[in-house]
Amino acid sequence: MDAGFWLFQALNALQLSMLLFLLSIGLTVIFGLMHFVNLAHGALYAAGAYVAASASAVGGYWLGFLAAPLAVAVLGVALYAGLIRRMRRAGPMAQVLVTFGLIFVLTDLTRIVWGDLALASEVPAALAGTVDIAGVTYPVYRLFIIALGLAVFAVLALVLARTQIGAMIRAGVDNDQMAACVGIDVERLFFIVFCVGCALAGLAGAVAAPVLSVTPEMGLSILIPTLIVIVIGGLGSLRGAIVGSLIFGFVQTFGAVLAPAFASVLIYALLAAVLIARPGGLFPARG
Amino acid sequence: MKRTATGIATAGLIGAALVAPAAADEIKVGLLLPYSGVYAALGTEIDAGFVLGLDTFGEDAGTSFQIVREDTEVKPPVGLAKARKLILQDRVDVMAGIVSSGVLAAVRDVVDGAEVPLIVANAGNDIATGEACSPYVVRVSFSNSQINRPMGPWMVQQGITKVYTMAPDYAAGRQMMETFAESFTAAGGEIVGADYTPFRKTQDFGPYLAQAKASGAEAVFAFYAGGEAISFVKQYDSFGLKADMGLYASGFLTSPLYVEAQGPAAEGIVTSLHYVPTLDTPVNNAFVAAFEAETGRTPSEYAVAGYDAARALVEAAKTGADGGAALAAALSRVSFEGPRGTLSIDPATNNVVQPIYVYETVAGPEGLTQKLLAELPPEQDAPNGCEMPTN
Questions:
Q1: According to the model, what pLDDT value does residue B3 have?
Q2: What's the pLDDT at A202?
Q3: Nearest 5°: phi and psi at B155?
Q4: Distance of alpha carbon B237 from alpha carbon A280, whole angstroms
Q5: Which residues of A touch B195 (CB under 8 A)?
Q6: Is B261 close to A108, i.e. CB distance below 8 A?
Q7: Mean pLDDT of chain A
Q8: Is B183 left (phi over 0), alpha (psi -120 to 50) or beta?
């Protein structure tokens, strides 16, 4: 177990973190801004993976990479218009039940459309193979996931901190009634954020497809890690999402290496500890 | 046959002569398979094999078959409720199917108590034909140890002496790895490390693969199935491990059912299994052709288990067995030449006895295909605490 081994594991942890970040950022901002719990977020990620796998079979990886976020955003628009807008004032219990039910509906829809058999998706030729970093042989595609996650983080941080719409979103998260009073159309803002969140979930699905297997259940299995990330990081904040993702990725990866017997329990223990010490998470959008 | 007594009586009322037939004029079969949930693909595959088996052999059975399907999902309580429904409400004569060993364990006592024979077409838990065996549970698929035991000595013969094992952390994963480790070390090999990854919760095998690489092993021996098998094979390849450390496995890893989704990453993996679709025997060629005509895909080890379950049922019905006990007894004496080779049931455990094949997944003219490397002779499992009542 030399230094190379630990670098290798650190890269593994980063890769997992970035994948989770792409998923959790959409979910957490939707929650922060709209106080809306969208448990179907994982199913949207699965839909993204399926669209990407189908599109890449026709027109190559990059077509899938572009088509998945778009298709899932369109699906998001449909969900918003058909269901979520009606549920806005229904209270968290009803929202959780409806979106939880939506998971099963979407899972079965993917099963009806694409069947039970897992789909294939290959890494594009440009990102295939491995590269040497400080003596460590690492797959290029995993580095691409890390880079993509960091890029999305940078863009979102810039938009939230420096642009007008970013300021409006921050105002909406902070106090939506006050924001509405000063003339911000919170509902429209909410719609935009929801669509961006869905598109990012679709993107995460497209990126994950060549690494993981594309099965109808993939949305359900990613949901719990995503929720843990949000709860640890704190609801509604970009910083919370990235920190939560990094904590999850590193605890999961190094837990598997250092304490394999506790690998599946460690993250839950950490979750419990965070909830006891800081019930709002580490970086909640509203103190 | 108690359950068809009313049917026969009705037949008598509408004028047919009231003579007891040698065999029931219709056998009602309850298919207990997962048609939804993570094993849905396996359920439909076994179903397709079973229906094809009945269509192919059913005609000479001297009786007709009626199928009642129930979805067990992957949930033992659901499987139990569905088994009860088939026995009590539908009054089936025999049941077949069962993918998950958890579901098998849940229905075992009901099957045994109601004396309705159950032909197991997948679930491979050793205990089901070991200490929990029943004269009414007959397994035509495989047992976990049966598939992996012969790989130990075979790998040592190939000159591999240091192996790292990896499997999901649940009963099947542990049984497979423990059997392999036992026979491998007995043959002179050494297990340099083992990982049991959280079952169905592991997305990224990277951390474990890095450890396998650092262990100095010459090869990895693994078991994964379904979605995990696809992720595992792809990630193993993406880290460039195949060149330094050969990947050997229990054959479910590269099942024809999902090997296409694994793509080129699956090339060169050597595995052992009870069935390989490229076996060049007349019986198998006929089966493969018929299955492909029906479904448009190559049959997997799951399809063949469904097919042979139907065949076993037909063979048992041919003996004129009447009633649950007689049918179960006939099932445990079944023997025939199937797509997998010569198949028989070991009456001591009611588990199937069959040859095990070692195959390599290679690129063929039409995508990935299986190249047969060795046929290892059939071996009976030890009784493992199974005590069949003698009657």
A1: 47
A2: 95
A3: -70, -35
A4: 41
A5: 260
A6: no
A7: 89
A8: alpha
Best B204, B208, B257 residue to mutate vs chain A (most A CBs within 10 Å): B204
Contact assignment for A122 to B263 by CB distance below 8 Å = yes
Q: β-strands B26-33, B64-71: how paired?
A: parallel
Q: Please list, in sequence order, all residues whose beta carbon lies within 8 angstroms of the beta carbon of residue B85, skipping any fewer than 6 positions away.
A: B70
- For residue A210, list chain B residues with Cβ-Cβ distance below 8 A: 234
Strand, coil or helix: what is B356?
Answer: strand
The token pair at B345 is: 């049931």
Q: How far apart are CA B319 and CA B300, in angstroms?
A: 29
Q: What is the pLDDT of residues B121-171, one digit of tens each?
A: 999 999 999 999 999 999 999 999 999 999 999 999 999 999 999 999 988
Residues A29 and A159 sit within 8 Å (Cβ to Cβ): no
- Choosing among A1, A112, A212, A218, which should be mutated to test the B contact, i.e. which has the most B CBs within 10 A? A212
- Contact B238/A123, CB-based, under 8 Å? yes
Q: Residue B305: is its pLDDT beyond 60?
A: yes
pLDDT tens-digit profile of A246-262? 999 999 999 888 887 78
> Which SS3 state, helix, strand or coil, does residue A217 take?
coil
Contact B110, B83 (CB under 8 A): yes
Quote ipTM for the complex: 0.86
The rounded percent of chain B whose pLDDT value lies above 70 is 93
Which site among B44, B47, B74, B203 would you substitute to test the A interface, given the most A Cβ atoms closer than 10 Å to its Cβ?
Answer: B203
The answer to whether the CB of B138 falls within 8 A of the CB of B328 is yes
Going by C-alpha positions, the residue among A226, A183, A268 that lies closest to residue A29 is A226
Task: List, in sequence order, every beta strand (DSSP E) within A26-174.
Answer: 130-133, 136-139
Roughly how many angstroms between the first and final C-alpha of chain A, as a whole number? Answer: 42
Q: What is the pLDDT of residue B390?
A: 63
User: How large is the angle between the packed helices B101-114 and B76-84, nearest 10 degrees?
Assistant: 30
pLDDT of residue B7: 44
Tokens 């007894």 correspond to what residue? Answer: B329
- Cα A146 to Cα A133: distance, rounded to the nearest angstrom: 14
- Chain centroid to Cα B170, Å, comes to 17
Could you give the CA distance from residue B152 to residue B183 in angstroms, rounded to a whole number? 5
**Which of A269, A228, A12, A263 lies closest to B197 in space, CA to CA?**
A263
Cα distances (Å, whole numbers) of residue A134 to A8, B110, B172, B242: 10, 61, 39, 21
User: Please, which pLDDT band fits residue B21 given cuts at 50, 70 and 90?
Assistant: very low
The reported pLDDT for the residue numbered A34 is: 75
Alpha-carbon B107 to chain mean position: 17
**Cβ of B206 under 8 Å from any chain A Cβ?**
yes
Secondary structure of residue B186 in the 3-state scheme: helix
Mapped onto helix, strand or coil, the DSSP state of residue B319 is coil
B227 and A222 in contact by Cβ < 8 A? no
Closest Cα partner for B272 from B141, B123, B367, B374? B374
Residue B147 tokens read as 């598939």
Residue A285 predicted with pLDDT over 80 = no
A37 to chain B, minimum CA–CA distance in Å?
A: 23
C-alpha A25/C-alpha A242 separation (Å) is 8
B264 C-beta neighbours (distance < 10 Å), count? 12
Output the pLDDT for position B15.
39
